[in-house]
Amino acid sequence: MKKKYSLLLVLALIVFMTGCTKPKVEVLESSVFIRINPEVELVVKEDVVIAANALNEDAILLLFEDEFIGKTIDEAIEIIFENSLEMGFLDETESNNIFVETINENDTERERIEQKVRNRLNEIAQRKELIANVVLARLSSEIKEQAEINNVSYGKMLIITRIMMLDDSYAIEDLKQMPLQELNEIFRENFKEFRTINQERRLELIEIRKQKREETKTKIEEFRQRILEQIRNSEDLTEEEVQNRFTERLNDIKEELRNRRNI
Fold it and tell me: How far apart are CA 236 and CA 242, in angstroms?
């Protein structure tokens, strides 16, 4: 009898352990597109960057000096934001629009990554007291309809649409059979020229980045000096009073930009 109970106990334990073992779910990579004026693609897996691509000329200036692979998505976004601010793509004196679009075959994961990126960009903008309107690119009803007709995810239909806009020799029937990773490679291949930078071009880009930084500093300083001059000419104030009024004026300008963004 004891042997029978022991055998039942072992079988029950095996069943319990088998039931508790969850199959490993494959984590799909996501492509995150961030568009300020530069347009950057970050390829992420498990929230870590595995590739960073420049999708236009301005984006090369943001990416080529920094190493992104292996960084968390939060760290990569911080670098992109800092570089954009330094080179004047983000303006401290104006309201800024930042567009975010994410592609992942799993729509739940796509939405999670999108919200993560949006929250991070908003957090950095708030910390730097920059007025930024982070806009999530919404899927059009046409893309959703095509996804349902072709029985693919919204994310997959989005990358198929992008590919066909760049090269109309592709057909939906062929593309929808391919895995998302292969589709991403086809899309990136269209921007291959942006990722090949020889030494001469690298030196040229370094010089352009320096000029952009200097232009941004000059623009901000001229803006500040204009406001200070207006305050000094309007009333007979001590320098301390001028600086206090200057701070108040900057706060008013920022508040006006916030209100303008919310209209």
Answer: 9
> In the chain, at which residue ranges do the beta strands (DSSP E only) sit?
30-35, 39-45, 48-54, 96-103, 132-136
For 95, counting Cβ atoms within 10 Å of its Cβ (0-12 exposed, 13-18 middle, 19+ buried), the class is middle
Residue type, 7: L
DSSP string, 187-225: HHHTTHHHH---HHHHHHHHHHHHHHHHHHHHHHHHHHH
Digit-coded pLDDT (tens) for 111-144 = 899 999 999 999 999 898 888 889 887 666 777 8
pTM for the model stands at 0.60
- Give the tens place of pLDDT for each residue, 15-43: 444 444 444 445 678 889 898 888 888 88
Structure tokens at 31: 């492509």
For residue 94, which of 133, 38, 135, 127 has the smallest C-alpha distance? 133
Give the integer Cα–Cα distance in Å for 240 and 45: 52
Indicate whether 71 pLDDT > 70.
yes
CB burial readout 25-57, b (16+ within 10 A) else e: eeebbbbbbbbbbbbbbbbbeeeebebbbbbee
**How far apart are the C-alpha atoms of 263 and 258, rounded to whole Å?**
9
Distance CA 39, CA 12 (A): 57
Structure tokens at 63: 């990416």
